[in-house]
Amino acid sequence: MNGRNSIVFITAEYLMNLTDDFSRWNSYIFFLAAGQLDRPLKYAIENNKFSTRKIVIENAKNPIDATLINQVLSEHIINDNINFEVTKKVVKEFRKDGDIAKSLEIISSDIKEMNKEENLLKVLNHLESLISNEN
Amino acid sequence: MKIKKVEIQAFRAYDKVENGTFDFQLGQNQYADFISLYAPNGFGKTSFYDAIEYSYTNNIDRFLKNKNNKDIAKSEKNIGNHEKQYILRNRYSNADLESYVILHTDTKKISKVISSPRRGSSDYKFDEKETENKYFREVILSQDWISGFLKEDKPEDRYKTFIEYFGNHDLDRYYNMLLSLESQNEKEIKRINDSIKGIQLKLGYEGDREILSKVNEKINLLNRSRTLFIPIDFHTTEKDLLNLTNSISERQSDIAFEISRKHAQISELDKLIIGNEEISGIQHFKELLAEEEKFKKRSTELLELSSQYDKLQDKKLELLAFQNKGTSLVKEKEEKAEILKHFDSYLDLLNREKDNNKEIEELLLAQENLNKEIINERIEVSKLDVKISNYEKEADQINRTIEELPSIIKLIEKRGDEIKSILNDIVEKKIELGEKDKRIESFEQLIAKYHSAQSELKENKLPNEADEYFKDVKTLIQGYPELKLAAEESERELEITEKRISENELFRDELTIFINKGLSIINDSKSKSCPLCNKEYDSYTELSDKVTGNKFLSEISTHLLTRKSEIEQNLKANSEKISYTIAEIDLHIFKLIIQAQSERSAIQSDVFTLREFITGLEAKAEERKNDLLELRKSIFNMTAEDFRKWTDERLAELKAKKDLNISIRAELLDKIKIEEEKIQVWIENSSLLNKDNQLLQNNQMIQDLKFLFTEYYPGYELDPEIVWRDLNKIEIEHAEIKNEIEEIKAAVEYSEKLLTGKDPHAIQSELKELELRIRSIFRTIEPFKLELTRILNMDPIDIVPEKLDKIIQDQKELEEQNLEKYFEESKELDLLSQLKENVLPFLKFEENKKAQAELKKDKLLKDKVSKKLEKEMKRVSAHMEQEIKSFFFEDLINDLYRRIDPHPEYNKVKFIPDFKDNKPKLNVCVYKEDENDKFIIPNLYFSQAQLNILSLCIFLAKALNAVDGQDNSIDCIFIDDPIQSMDSINILSTIDLLRSIVVNQEKQIILSTHDENFHNLLKKKIPSNLFKAKFFGA
Predict the structure, then answer these.
(1) Distance between CA atoms of residues B137 and B159, nearest Å
(2) Are B272 and B808 contacting, i.e. CB atoms less than 8 angstroms apart?
(3) Which residues of chain B are within 8 Å of residue A97 when distances are taken between CB atoms?
């Protein structure tokens, strides 16, 4: 039985017999392969739109037991293994260099004004005077 | 924080709150965690998110993102003629409907009311500063975010987008500023390097390096007495050296001038000592001074004598003047005395004139008073004349009345009788008038009655047959009820007949149908038995003919119509009789009215005549009464006897009064005559006095006096006092002059004694000679003095002849010493001038050395600045890299991205910020799991759906970890249409992922979609009966 036939078979024999609406709309077909599938084949299976969502599991480990099934479900359906708990790195507030900050204070904070050559020179001169005084 | 309910009214696409309420409650204290809102595009999905965002953050981020929005809103406002601009408020909502959003969360209720803007203003400001609780934006995954973030092709543009959306704007600006500063600093360093290269070429000098101290040594030497030149140093400029050159030249010129001046001064001092053709020497000058002194002394003595002689002559002239003055005063005194003599006579005459005038005035006054008295007396005489006349007239009148008395008495009696007769006539005529008025009234009532009968007749009400006035039409009135009854009977019969005619016609129609049916049956069956009445006929033909020829119904109709015609004729005849009866009675009433009106008019005419007659009688009676009153009044309403008695008394009284008045009148006339004679005498006296006054005015003595007085005192009135005062003044002046004359005479005698033996001519002659000699000496010594004062610069007063020799000699020695000094200084200046020429090259060399040092120092400083800026940029970029890394939760994004699995191979994501170049970049790369060093930029290879999924994962990871200002987790996530362009496989995996987030993480997801299939699919995949889910459809 190839995949396409199996999908039809499952649909006919299994899904059609389901009476529960939720089960009918929430069935999944997993294709577990021992190795890796050709990309076109995998694409063809997963993008088959007939009746249910299909998921290909490559390099599936034997045996297909409850652990594996739970693992597959967790990974693809229930998503209960997502690590939502991210540790947010606390980035300390940036402290500007004192001399540069002081030098910038002497000109207008308007960005267009700041970028005028005369204002840039004013800032640089002030910065030089501060560095010079430090020495 | 989760959302329990949202209420939106008059906000964006929403109108009334009934249609804008989203209640997420499921049961008692239970709320949906998964909500799907389905609505086609344009039905307010985005408005729903706008409302939630605005209620929580007081702003709408998607409006701010596009900077053009503000300009567009401004244009719209201008086009809208500056009406109120509604951006938040639903402009189509009723004006009374309040615009608001109420957000019910599990922790609080947030109400946001949108106030109405002023005219020309907007209810939304497009101002980022208005934003509150900015963190809330992280949980609103708008379409713009999802589809826009990865759309940028260039990583530097994506960096900009990132900064714009989430970044640290201040720090980014700071970084850009550092870049600008660094670039500018590099430019400056390059400029300095170029300058240093230029200066190095000019550094070469082989001259005297001690030149500055040598030049300054000379300057200090020359500056000993006073500062002439400024010392030089390394700061001295080319201009300073030029100034020094000029100063040396100026000083040389000054010295040359001074030397020449000193030579001239020494030469002039020599001239003073020995003299020349212009002036004498000092020895001769001293001799002349002694001689001049002697001459001046003698001249003074002679001048004194001459002065005394002149004074004597002056005194003599003065004496003569005083004597002349005394003589003229004596003459004047005599003339004034003469005037005073005239004054005695003048005053006598003047008093006489005054007395005359006074007497004339008194006479005039008495005359006037007496005239007034005479006038009054004459008035009194006139009054007496009137009284006498009146008494006479009254007596005449009484006498005439006495004569007419018998006829007056008769006339009074006659008039009384006449009045009585007239009054009786009036009473009779008034009674007659009353009767006529009553008759007119009865006719009026009768006419009214006829009119009433006429009106009632119009309503077919006939008058009473018993009434006497209608006896002529009594028969007609009696026959009328019968006619009326007959008419009514006929009308009823006509009605019945018409009804029968109508019924007969209906019946005939029905019967015709019935017969036709029967005939058709007969014709069909060819039967001789009638099917309608079961009567047997001989043959079918007979039966058929009988039925066909049936006339029964038409005969009835004819009879009925004939009857109707008869009734109508009867009715017409009857109606004509009734009309005739009414018309006859109406005519009779009309005649009665005319007759009554005619009779009433005749009586009214009589009444008018009667009233005229009574008025005439009343006027006549009144005339007689007046006449009677006048007659009685003429005898004072008395009887004839009383009147006669009264007249006797009155006539006697009048005579007595008349006689008395005549006597008084005669007395008054006598008095007037005497008084008029007295006035005549007074007039004559006044005339005499006036004549006397005229003579006094023309008196010759008075004329002379006036002439003399006016000559001395023009403008003054004749007054002897003025002359007396003047005469006293002359006396005093004359006495003073006499004293003066005595004093001057004594002084003249004294001077004549002193000058005895002195010849005034000899004195004048000697004085002239001395003056000539002094002048001659002056001409010689004065030029010497002038030269002396000029050369030695001294005041002429200070000249002491004995000390002059020494002063001149000392001055000469001093000038010679100064001359020597100037020669020395000139020599030193020449030396300084030569040394100075070597200073400029040396200074230029030093200047370049210094400039090079400065530039090197400046470059060193700029290098330090450059290092500092570079270091700071590295710090900033490192920090921003950290911020970006911390912003994107890379592991979670990868995990989410893997679950949806949009791409078969590139299933890993990495964020790579790059600050190596001047333009920071943000790379979002994907790579294959087994090739973690081969990144691709997904934009080039991914479909739009794949890019959207990647973007959704990026923002979903961010939203899942969003916290509020107090670091509390925000548990609700809003996703606007997440499945755009996705294929169905990705849609299924996305739904599974979202469901897992709701179930496993207990997050609340509020999702909207325009796709009804997707909405329905969600209902199946996350049904409300199994999950805390709620679905809102369009």
Answers:
(1) 19
(2) yes
(3) 868, 871-872, 875
Give the C-alpha separation, B187 to B514, whole Å.
Answer: 130
Q: Determine the Cα–Cα distance for residues B78 and B109; give it in Å rounded to an integer.
A: 37
Per the CB < 8 Å rule, is B868 touching A84? no
pLDDT at B59: 93
User: Are the C-beta atoms of residues B487 and B570 closer than 8 Å to each other?
Assistant: no
- pLDDT for res A2: 61
Helix (H) or strand (E) holding B293: helix B282-458
- Whose tokens are 């002529």? That residue is B472
Q: How far is B992 from chain A (nearest CA, A)?
A: 6
pLDDT in tens, A35-84: 988 888 888 888 887 778 889 998 888 788 888 999 999 989 988 888 87
B612-621 long-range CB contacts below 8 Å, 24 or more apart? B613/B429, B614/B426, B614/B429, B614/B430, B614/B433, B617/B422, B617/B425, B617/B426, B617/B429, B618/B426, B620/B422, B621/B419, B621/B422, B621/B423, B621/B426
Q: How far apart, in whole angstroms, are the C-alpha atoms of residue B25 and residue B9?
A: 20
pLDDT digits (tens, 9 = 90+) for B250-267: 999 999 999 999 888 888
Token pair 């005395």: residue: B337
Any idea which of B480-484, B502-506, B857-861 has the lowest mean pLDDT? B502-506
- Residues of B (961-1000) whose Cβ lies below 8 Å from A: 961, 983-985, 988-989, 992-993, 996-997, 999-1000
Q: Which residues pair with B975 in a beta bridge?
A: B141, B1007
Chain A positions in Cβ-Cβ contact with residue B1020 (cut-off 8 Å): 21-22, 25-26
A43 CB near a chain B CB, below 8 Å? yes
B863 shares contact with chain A (CB less than 8 Å): no
Mark residue B1028 as left, alpha or beta (left: phi above 0; alpha: psi -120 to 50; beta: remaining). beta
Q: Which residue has the tokens 């479909």?
A: B943
Position of tokens 């004054």? Answer: B343
Neighbours of B973 (CB within 10 A): 24
Chain A residue with minimum CA distance to B900: A76
* Mean per-residue pLDDT, B1015-1024: 94
What's the length of chain A? 135
Specify the residue for token string 């199996």: A6
- Chain B contact for A82, CB < 8 A? yes
Cβ neighbours for B586, distance < 8 A, ≥ 6 positions apart: B454, B457
A41 CB within 8 Å of a chain B CB = no
pLDDT at B31 over 90: yes
Residues on chain B touching A104 (C-beta within 8 angstroms): 177
* Residue B917 predicted with pLDDT over 80: no
Q: Which residues contact A28 (CB under 8 A, 6 or more apart)?
A: A52, A53, A54, A55, A76, A77
Q: What is the pLDDT of residues B352-382, one digit of tens each?
A: 888 988 999 998 999 999 999 999 999 999 9
CB pairs under 8 A between A and B: 118
Query: Cα B837 to the chain's mean position, in Å?
Result: 79
Assess contact for B393 and B574: CB atoms under 8 A: no
Q: What is the pLDDT of residues B484-519, one digit of tens each?
A: 888 888 888 888 888 888 777 776 776 676 677 677
pLDDT recorded at residue B189 = 93
Site of tokens 């008759």 = B439
A110 touches B: beta carbon within 8 Å: no
Most confidently modeled range among A95-104, B154-163, B494-503, B709-718: A95-104
Output the CA–CA distances (angstroms, integers) from residue A133 to A96, A99, A126, in the order listed: 19, 11, 11
By mean pLDDT, which of B493-497, B524-528, B897-901 is the weakest?
Answer: B524-528
Tokens representing B118 are 């002023």
Contacts for B316 with CB less than 8 Å, ≥ 6 apart:
B748
